[in-house]
Amino acid sequence: MAFGIKRRDLKRWKKEVESGNIAFLTHFWYDSRFPTAKSVTKVGCNDRKKLSDWGRAYGLKEEWIHERDAYPHFDLIGDKQVEIMTREGRIKELQKFL
Question: For the whole model, what pTM was predicted?
Answer without folding.
Answer: 0.91
